[in-house]
Specification:
Blueprint: E1 2-4, H1 11-19, E2 26-30, E3 41-44, H2 75-98, H3 102-107, H4 124-131, E4 138-154, E5 157-171, E6 177-193, E7 196-204, H5 207-210
Antiparallel strand pairs: 1-2, 2-3, 4-5, 5-6, 6-7
Helix pairs in contact: 2-4
Amino acid sequence: MEFHRGHRSSNRMANWLSINGQFRMGATITSCYNHDHHMKTKFIPPLLILLTFLFHSACTPDQTPDFSAFTNPDPQTYVSLMPIIREYFYLRKQAVLSGDPDPLLTRYPDLAAGANLEKGINIEAHHIASMQSLAPFDGNTHPECYEPIRIKESGETMEILVHGMELYLWNNEDDTFNESGGEFKMVLTVRKEGNTWQIIKTDQVTLQEWKGFEP
């Protein structure tokens, strides 16, 4: 993925950047993966690539996460996991738009504890709060934008690698529409509870970890 430096078009963006480490970029992005393996290219105007979106791993900040142990799920497992993933990202989006993390954290109470911003672990509350200076009013998340989900099973839990795109719409001071967000990679740790899975941890790859990845 090739990044191009963006620019600050409003005081609200400047405030947001100061909260999130002054990380600003635009991007020309290849559109989302599809299961027919056709790709097409589109240009997304300069984006505010969210530092808090960027990736999941329990390693130290100067390490590159190793996802080689993750494999493609069988069709039955895939079908059972996708509703869980869609629900999480729906509730995450609603929390960003409303500014209220409570419904998300009520649904996934384990995510309310153990936050580690440096490592990208359980940072939902920070991510939601950091978005509010932009006052986003719409958004879209594509969990499989860059590649299909992959999994790693370990006893009673499973880790799900998600490599997608998250974008939010907001207005700047001259009432033009802008998008903020971008590519993300994260791992959702789930535990079997009855006939379904419960998300008990999220781990987003951080900017420092992201530097070790190939484009």
